[in-house]
Q: What sequence folds into this?
């Protein structure tokens, strides 16, 4: 490390990073991990966490990082929120698990009531709980098929809906999720999703949106008859696909088409939900009331729980025993989720997301003229990203994005990429991040951008 680099590190208030590489304890654990853990379980960084609080992660060697990845959007309420820890501690003293199918418990019912209250839709709603986002998707599809009596499910290009068989079938990215994993589930189809960054220069945004809606209408003529489609499933803002924000008129157009043909609309809000986009749920921003919603990730600050919430008559279509699972809606997950929602409402974390997003976009918009590799700065609320391109060709800059992420990590910021080309740097910091922490993290990424662009 140079003297200049040491001075920069010393000037930082919150992080140390690991400019000289992983520490001895981390190296030891990496070696053990290679021996014991399947290689298909990926790791984005050489990072073994010892403790985490708020927006700060500390590794087993005492290095500190600002978490701009948020466990892939799982800790909007921050790492170890005291309210959640206390709620779980109380539940631990009572009982761990009874299986809701065997011995019911009040937190399950209370959480179902709360989600019915706060999710979009001016109609009676019910909920059911599972363990993961992929399980929520599986069950939403089962419910939709049972209610409609139709098999077809339409997802969208670049969409991500999980790594289970049906989740992979609905997911668009081949590598690393689907390659040599088939055959996939039948009666699943993919329609085109907008990518405004690549909008033809001859079209206005509204013309482009109308064109994309017309493509969906053509899709129902050429690929799948609406009489055979049970549901459309859409991420209101695509997550793994690159944090792509579609025109509101596109989402509303698809929603209207579904209504006209008796097709259910499933909003996959697993990553967009719980304040990330500036409202509790992104569907509100787009002005739609989905028939079904899938929820997980930041629902419970890291405890494994997911939900399907929707119109009561649709949710009641399956008969007893046709949906559920041994660990679905565990008592620990339910009390954690209730504490998270209470915290988000009390502290108005969706409003905080809007402030964070404005700060991020303002910072990179100011840098963009200096760095042609920043093709676009985009986002909704605090679900923000920058698209990295080759400044010479304009093509996706996957290697440069990876270099920026590595350099940022060495300096003390944990980042993730996204997009089918892996060239999008996404930001998923906890919404409890302070202004000073956010500013320091952005400055570090700015330094990494400058250094990587010179190399």
A:
């Amino acid at each position: 490390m140079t003297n200049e680099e040491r001075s920069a590190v010393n000037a930082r208030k919150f992080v140390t990073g690991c400019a000289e590489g992983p520490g001895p304890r981390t190296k030891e654990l990496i070696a053990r991990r290679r021996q014991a853990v399947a290689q298909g379980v990926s790791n984005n960084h050489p990072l073994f966490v010892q403790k985490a609080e708020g927006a700060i992660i500390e590794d087993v060697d005492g290095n500190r990082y600002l978490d701009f990845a948020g466990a892939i959007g799982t800790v909007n309420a921050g790492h170890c929120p005291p309210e959640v820890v206390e709620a779980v501690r109380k539940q631990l003293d009572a009982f761990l698990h009874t299986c809701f199918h065997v011995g019911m418990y009040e937190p399950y019912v209370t959480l179902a009531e709360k989600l019915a209250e706060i999710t979009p839709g001016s109609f009676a709603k019910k909920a059911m709980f599972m363990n993961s986002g992929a399980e929520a998707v599986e069950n939403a599809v089962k419910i939709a098929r049972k209610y409609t009596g139709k098999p077809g499910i339409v997802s969208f290009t670049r969409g991500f809906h999980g790594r289970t068989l049906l989740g992979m079938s609905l997911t668009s990215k081949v590598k690393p999720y689907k390659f040599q994993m088939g055959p996939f589930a039948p009666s699943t189809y993919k329609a085109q999703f907008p990518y405004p960054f690549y909008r033809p220069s001859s079209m206005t945004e509204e013309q482009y949106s109308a064109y994309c809606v017309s493509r969906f209408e053509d899709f129902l003529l050429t690929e799948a008859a609406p009489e055979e489609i049970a549901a459309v499933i859409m991420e209101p803002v695509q997550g793994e696909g690159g944090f792509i924000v579609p025109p509101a008129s596109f989402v509303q157009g698809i929603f209207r088409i579904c209504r006209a043909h008796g097709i259910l609309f499933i909003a996959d809000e697993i990553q967009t939900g719980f304040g990330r986009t500036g409202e509790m749920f992104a569907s509100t921003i787009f002005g739609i009331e989905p028939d079904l919603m899938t929820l997980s990730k930041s629902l419970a600050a890291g405890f494994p729980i997911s939900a399907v919430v929707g119109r009561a008559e649709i949710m009641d279509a399956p008969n007893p025993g046709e949906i559920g699972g041994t660990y679905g809606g565990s008592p620990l997950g339910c009390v954690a989720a209730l504490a998270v929602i209470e915290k988000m409402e009390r502290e108005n974390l969706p409003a905080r997301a809007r402030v964070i997003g404005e700060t991020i976009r303002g910072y990179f918009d100011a840098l963009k003229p200096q760095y042609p590799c920043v093709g676009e700065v985009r986002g909704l609320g605090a679900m923000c990203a920058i698209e990295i391109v080759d400044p010479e060709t304009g093509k996706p800059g996957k290697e440069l994005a990876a270099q920026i992420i590595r350099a940022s990590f060495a300096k003390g910021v944990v980042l993730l990429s996204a997009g089918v080309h892996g060239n999008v740097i996404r930001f998923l910091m906890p919404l409890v991040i302070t202004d000073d922490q956010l500013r320091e993290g952005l400055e570090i990424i700015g330094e990494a951008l400058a250094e990587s662009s010179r190399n």
About this structure: The CA atoms of residues 149 and 285 lie 31 Å apart. The two ends are 17 Å apart (CA to CA). The longest helix spans residues 435-454.
